[in-house]
Structures are given as C-alpha cells and as structure tokens.
Amino acid sequence: MKKIKVSTLAVTIALATWSMPASAVPISWNAGTADWFMAGNWTPMQVPTNLDDASVNNAGTANANGSVQVNELNIGRVTSAASATGTVNVTSGNLTGNGAGSLHVGLTDNQAPGILA
After folding, report:
1. CA–CA distance, 64 with 36 (Å, rounded to integer)
2. Burial of 9 (0-12, 13-18, 19+ CB in 10 A)
3. Which of 23, 53, 57, 61 could form a disulfide with 33 if both were Cys (CB 3.0 to 4.6 A apart)?
C-alpha cells in the first residue's frame, strides 16, 4: 500500500483558498414600496448581505425595519447616462457597509436623485 505525503504548502494553499472572501454579488430592487428583508423584492431572489452590492434604482422604496448590512449600496444611481430614482428607509436599525464597500446616492451629475432616510 502506498503512503501519500501531503506537503505543508499544499495544505496552506487549500486552506487559504477556502477562507478567501466571496466576491460581491450585484442584487437589484425589483419592487415598488416594500420590505427590504423579503427575498422576492430582489433580483436575484435573495436579501443582500454584507458581501453583496445592492441597488435601488427602479423608482421603488425599500423599507428596512431593522439593521441592513451590504458591501455597496446604490440608491438612484446607474452607471450610464440614464435617469433612475430610488429610496431606502432604515428604521429601528443601522445601515452598515462592508469595510471595502461604498454608499452612492444619485449620480454625480444629479441626473438621478436618490433618497436615504
């Protein structure tokens, strides 16, 4: 029977790969005025977490009755010249971003108003 030697380097690389943080997933609000914490109000169908980039750019209002954690939050902001609006209301909680994340409200040229309340 052959013995298999596993090198320390191979184990270290495997552990480092498994412990790497996941990439941010872009998640878009698809509802009008509704609950932030309902997965069906987002595309794809999942509530954003601290690893995700969330956008409310469809003239809708995301109401969060509790704390919200996201990597990046875009409100009324799109990456093209198109106009978009959005509102996020956080009550009875905090809005927390990931250490490397961002908060964007409206476009830099004010074409797309956003509201964070």
Report:
1. 5
2. exposed
3. 61
- Look up the pTM and report it: 0.71
Backbone angles phi, psi at 27, to 5 degrees: -130, 130
Write down the residue that tokens 């959005």 correspond to: 86
Backbone angles phi, psi at 18, to 5 degrees: -70, -30
Please give the structure tokens belonging to residue 105: 């409200």
Q: Do residues 11 and 4 touch, judged by C-beta distance below 8 A?
A: no
Q: How much is the pLDDT for 17? A: 43
Going across the sheet that includes 86-91, the strands are 33-35, 61-65, 86-91, 114-116
Domain edges within the chain? 24-116
pLDDT in the model for residue 48: 96
For the stretch 67-105, pLDDT in tens is 999 999 988 876 565 667 889 999 988 888 776 677 777
